[in-house]
Amino acid sequence: MKPDNNPDPIENISRIQQAISQQAINQKLGCVAAFEIAAQLNVSPKAVGRTLDQMNYRITHCQLGLFGHSPEKKIVAPDKAVDLRLKTAIEAAAADGRISCLKAWDIAAALQLPKLAVSNACEGLEMRIKPCQLGAF
């Protein structure tokens, strides 16, 4: 994937816009669909997120449960009894009381856990997840 610090070429923006338009419903696109678009077009997730912003579309159904879920907006719930392996992995990945979305995903994959389990653990440990790979937060 291309680096996030370079502007997206016009042809990528057009391709991303077209893919978003084909999959979005009511100007909303799910997090999973946004990542699928990034993979299919070989662009960064952040490029898809920027394009969504430019189109005034919203991202829904964050895979970490942090936003875009109805009716409460988020579905993450603090896990106060965090498994020691998970706690150790989160703390090792943390800096300044937070871990990135990407690191949360990596932890979930490494420990073979659902992404929501990692975000629930982070919430229980009062660890914030930031930044979002799509640029939502």
What does this entry show, briefly?
The protein is mainly alpha-helical and 137 residues long. Helices cover 48% and strands 7% of the residues. It has helices at 10-23, 31-41, 45-54, 84-93, 101-111, 115-124; strands at 28-30, 58-60, 98-99, 128-129.
Give a written overview of the molecule.
The protein has 2 domains: 10-60; 84-129. The chain starts with 9 loop residues before the first helix and ends in an 8-residue tail after the last strand. It has a two-stranded parallel ribbon with strand order 1-2. Strands 3-4 form a two-stranded parallel ribbon. α1 packs across α2, α1 packs across α3 (45-54) and α5 crosses α6. It has helices at 10-23, 31-41, 45-54, 84-93, 101-111, 115-124, and strands spanning 28-30, 58-60, 98-99, 128-129. Helix content is 48%, strand content 7%. The protein is mainly α. The mean pLDDT is 93. The protein has 6 helices and 4 strands.
